Amino acid sequence: MRTADIGVTGLATMGRNLARNFARHGHTVAVHNRTESRTKQLVEEHGHEGAFVPSSSIEEFVSSLRRPRKAIIMVKAGPATDAVIEELAACMEPGDMIIDGGNAHFLDTRRREAALRERGLHFVGTGISGGEEGALHGPSIMPGGAAEAYETLGPLLEDIAAKVDGTPCCVHVGPDGAGHFVKMVHNGIEYADMQLIAESYDLLRQALGLSPGELAEVFREWNRGELESYLIEITAEVLGHTDPATGRPFVDVVVDQAEQKGTGRWTVQSALELGVPVTGIAEAVFARSLSGHPGQRAAARSLAGPAAAAAAGAELVEDVRRALYASKIVAYAQGFDQITAAGEEYGWNVDRGAMATIWRGGCIIRARFLDRIRTAYEADPALPTLLADPTFAAALADAQESWRRVVATAATIGVPTPGFSSALAYYDALRRDRLPAALIQGLRDFFGAHTYQRVDREGVFHTDWSGDRRERPA
Ligand SMILES: NC(=O)c1ccc[n+]([C@@H]2O[C@H](COP(=O)([O-])OP(=O)(O)OC[C@H]3O[C@@H](n4cnc5c(N)ncnc54)[C@H](OP(=O)(O)O)[C@@H]3O)[C@@H](O)[C@H]2O)c1
C-alpha cells in the first residue's frame, strides 16, 4: 500500500526525531532502519504521536511511499550514505526524490546529484540544523537540489521547520550542493561565534577576576540586548552550572580541549579554495586545534609572560560586549562572502537575505542579529560586504574604540584573543586606502619576476632587478 507522504531511513537520534516531527504534523511517515530494532522501538515508544508505516526492508519502505516518492536519508555521513542511496535508487522510479539530511560534504552532494539526475531521480542534499531538539520541535532546513523537486517537497519541509514571526525557517537554497554548502558555512559561523564567546569569558575572568557564576550573570544581561541569541543564552546556563560531584563551577572540571566533527575545517578548506578570507572561522578552528595539543602546551607553560597585569576596570565588561558584537559582525560578513563566492563558482545564485531569514530560528546560531542581516540584504541585495551596510557600519563605528581597548588589554595581560584580534585586523585592512600588498608585489617581482600592475597606467610590468633596474612591460 502506497500510503506514506514521506519516509525516513536511519532512525538514530536525528532521523527518529525528524520522523516524529512529520508525524506530529499530521503526515504519514514511512520509517526504516538498517537494524530493525530501532524501527520497532520508535513505533512502540512514539506510535501514538501520529501515523507511522514501519518497514523491515528498503524495498518495503520504498513501496510504502506515495508517488513521487520522497525518502529522507538520516544515516552516518560518508560511505553509508552512498550505500543507502544505491539501495533506494534501485527501487525507485523517475521523478522520485532521495533527500540526504545528513552532514554531507557539498562536493559529495554535487557528485550524487549529478549521478542520480542521469537516472531521472531527484537528489536533494539538505542541511538540517538544530540538533536533536531542533529535529523534533522545528529545525532550520536548507534544501538544495532542483527547484522542481522543492515544489513538491518544500511544503512538507516547511511544515516541520521552526517558525519565526510565522515564517518557516526553510527555503530552497539553490541547485545541487547549495543546501549542504550553506549548512557547512552555518556551522563554520557557529565555530566563530563560540570562539568569540569563549574569548569574552576568558578575558573577563582573567582581567577582572570574575567567577563563572558572576560571568553567567554578565551573559544573561547581554542576552537582553543586541547580542541576544541561543549561544549567549546557553553560555549563561553552562557558566552558571555547578558540578554536583565536586561543588566546583562546571566549566572548571571540564578538560580544556575542544573537539570538532569537521564542518568548521571543511568551511576553511573551501574558503581557501575560493580565496575568501574567513579569518574568524579559521581562527576558531585553529584555536580548537591548539587546545588539543596538551604536550606542546605543557612544554610551553614556562615561557615568559607579561610582567604585570594591566589595570582593568569594570568598564571592560561593556568594552568586551561591544568587541564581541563587532567581531561577530565580521565573522558573519565573512561567512556570507563565502556563500557569495561559492554561488559564483558553482552557479547557485543564493539569496543571502533568505539565508539570514532561515537561520533566525531552529538552528544553533539563531539570533536577533540575523534580522538585521536580512534587512541589510533586503535593502541592497548586491551589498559587497555586510560591513558596508549603514546599520552595521554605524554599529562598528560605535564599537571600534572598545574593540581596540579589548585587543590591547588582552595583549598586555597575555590572554589570547585570536578571534577578536583577527576580526579587528580584518576590519582595519578592509577599510585601508592602501595595503602593504604593494610591497609584496614588489618582492614577488624581485625574486620571481611575477610582475605587477601600476596605479598610474594600464598594463603589466616587470623591473629588471638584477640588471639595470629599468621597468619593461611584461
Ligand atoms: N546529531 C546531530 O546533532 C546532527 C545534527 C545535524 C545533522 N546530523 C547528521 O545527521 C545524520 C544522522 O545523525 P545521527 O546522529 O542521528 O546518526 P549517526 O550516529 O550519524 O548514524 C547512525 C545511523 O546511521 C545508520 N547507518 C550507519 N551505517 C549504515 C549503513 N552502512 N547502512 C545503513 N545505515 C547505516 C545507523 O543504522 P544502525 O542503527 O543499523 O546502526 C543509524 O541509523 C548524520 O549525517 C549527522 O552528521 C546530526
Q: Describe it for me?
A:
- By secondary structure, the protein is an alpha/beta fold.
- Helices cover 56% and strands 9% of the residues.
- It is built from 20 helices and eleven strands.
- It has helices at 13-24, 36-46, 58-63, 79-91, 106-118, 131-137, 147-160, 178-208, 212-222, 230-240, 250-253, 263-274, 279-291, 294-300, 315-346, 352-358, 369-379, 390-413, 418-430, 437-448, and strands at 6-9, 29-32, 52-54, 70-73, 97-100, 122-129, 140-143, 163-164, 167-168, 461-463, 471-473.
- The strands form three sheets. The protein has a seven-stranded mixed sheet, with helices on both faces. It has a two-stranded antiparallel ribbon with strand order 8-9.
- β1 (6-9), α1 (13-24) and β2 form a beta-alpha-beta unit.
- The longest helix is centred in the C-terminal third of the chain and has 32 residues, at 315-346.
- It starts with 5 loop residues before the first strand and ends with a strand.
- The structure holds NADP nicotinamide-adenine-dinucleotide phosphate (NAP).
Key structural traits:
single chain, 474 residues, alpha/beta, seven-stranded mixed beta sheet, two-stranded antiparallel ribbon, 11 strands, 56% helix, globular, binds NADP nicotinamide-adenine-dinucleotide phosphate
